[in-house]
Structures are given as structure tokens and as C-alpha cells.
Specification:
The protein is an all-alpha fold. The protein has one domain. The chain contains five helices and no strands.
């Protein structure tokens, strides 16, 4: 059952990203490295304020939905009532999501889809290299130990 839940959680992650960018990669410009962002601004395709608003809107909705889904999976679907059990399950989900994001979303989807190429920026690398993915995901692996405690605390309190 946990494999199905992990797959559904990762599918929700993908859906949230797709809904966030809609029909244009420009809607997700905040995901891109600074050189790409600066080129897009110079080309006049969008501005910093618009990107900032989109980032805040997306990140707020993304974290709220992903956290709520995780709490529901842990507490309601799996019936975990103790902090300890909720913590280990939250950690598993957050770590799988972390590496899913780096490998499947960043390297595979973004790295192999023309959708993510913004016209006028084709000459600027925007996909993370494997060493960058490994570094970022390793740092986030440590961060999620704290994040799992927050999720577990919420799950145990409700």
C-alpha cells in the first residue's frame, strides 16, 4: 500500500507543477537559474514583479496542498496517531519527493522536454547537472528531517 501512496504523492507533485506553469514555461520562471531569468527580463518577456507574485502564489499553494495531502495520508488513510510513527512515514514521503523532484522532474521532464525551453534562452544551460542535483538533494535530505517533525506533529495533534 505504501508504494501506491508514494506514487500518488509524486503524481500530485507533478500535477501541482504542471498546474503552476500551465501552458507556458514563463509561468515557472522562478524555477530557472538566475542567468535565464536575467535574459528573460532583458528580452522583455516578463518582469521581476510578475515572477515574484507567481512564485509566492505557487509556493503557498504547493506547500499547503502537499503538506495537507501528506497529513491526510499519514493520519486518515494510514491511521498513524503517534508522533514516532507519523515522523518516520513523513520522512519517507518527503525524502522520496525530494529525490523524485531532482531526478524525475528536473533531470528527466525538464531536461528532455521542449516545453521548458524559453525562446531566446536556448544558449543558457537551465537543467541541473548530476553533481548539482546530488548536492541540492543531499542538503534537502537533511532539511527534511526537520520538515518531517513538523508534519508528524500536525498529524499527531489532529
Amino acid at each position: 500500500m505504501i508504494i501506491v501512496q508514494l506514487a500518488l504523492y509524486c503524481a500530485l507533485f507533478t500535477l501541482m507543477v504542471k498546474l503552476g506553469v500551465g501552458s507556458s514555461a514563463l509561468n515557472g520562471l522562478f524555477f530557472y537559474p538566475k542567468p535565464v531569468q536575467e535574459r528573460v527580463y532583458a528580452l522583455g518577456l516578463t518582469d521581476r514583479e510578475t515572477v515574484g507574485r507567481r512564485r509566492k502564489r505557487f509556493m503557498s499553494a504547493f506547500f499547503a496542498v502537499m503538506a495537507a495531502a501528506l497529513v491526510l495520508i499519514i493520519r486518515v488513510w494510514n491511521g498513524n496517531h503517534s508522533f514516532r510513527d507519523a515522523y518516520w512515514q513523513a520522512l519517507l514521503f518527503l525524502e522520496v519527493m525530494n529525490w523524485y523532484d531532482g531526478i524525475v522532474i528536473d533531470r528527466l521532464w525538464v531536461g528532455h522536454s521542449a516545453f521548458w525551453v524559453i525562446p531566446g534562452t536556448e544558449d543558457i544551460p537551465f537543467v541541473q547537472t548530476w553533481p548539482q542535483v546530488l548536492k541540492k538533494r543531499s542538503v534537502l535530505t537533511a532539511v527534511w528531517f526537520a520538515g518531517a517533525a513538523i508534519v508528524a506533529g500536525i498529524a499527531a495533534l489532529i
